[in-house]
Amino acid sequence: MTPNFTSAQKGKAPETAEAPAKALQPTGPNQQGRPYPPANRTIHAIFSVDPVTQRRIEVGSVSEHHASSIPLTFCSKDLPQQGNLHNDPIVVVARIADFDIRRVLLDSGSAADVLFESAFLQTGLKVTNLLHAGTTLLGFSEERVQPLGFITLPVSFGDDNGHAMSMVNFAVIRAKSGYNAILGRTTPNSFGMVISTPHLCAKFPTSSGVVTIRGDAIQAARCFQIAA
To answer: Which domain holds residue 114?
Structure first.
C-alpha cells in the first residue's frame, strides 16, 4: 500500500510495503496557516522523461475549495530580475512525499502528472508500491509510453504567506529527461493556481494569504539543454 509520510518520519527513509499501492482519488488541497515546514531532503538533478505526455484519463477537477475573495494579480514586482527573455517554462521546486524535488515542470498543456523513475526511487519508494494499470501516455507525435505504474502522493507548495497540499496520482515513467516530474493542468487547478509565464511565477490563494511560486530560469535552461 502507499506509504504514509508523517512528521515523525523526518530524517528517515520512507517506509514501504511490499504489496501494490491502492489508487486514491485526488482531493482538493489541505490549506495550512502555519509556516511552511522544512522538507526531509532535496532531490536535485536526475535523468528521467520528455515533457510531452497526455494521459487518456482525466484525474480530478477544479475544486470549489478555492472560492476566495483574495485577488490574484501580477505586476512589475513579480518579474524576474533579468526578465524572461527566452520565454522559459515554469520549472519549480515542489514538495512531493516530504521531499523537495527540483526541476518540476508546471505544464498546463498536459493532462498527466508524471514522476520519473529516478526521482521516484530517490524518495525511497519501490516499484512494488506502484499500482499497475493499462493506461498509455501519448506524446505530441502520438508516440506511446507505458508507465511503470501509478502512485498517489502528497504534493505541496508554500511560502511565508502559507501553504497547501493536494494528493496527486502520478504516472511513474522510465525515460530520459531533464525534468524530475511534470505536473499537468489538473494539479495546478486543484490548488486554484494561476500561472504567468512572463512573470515566471504562479500564485494561488490560501486562508492566510497568497502563495507565490517562482520559476527557476537557470534550471529551465538546463532541462532544455538535456532534452535537446
So the answer is: 39-59+74-227
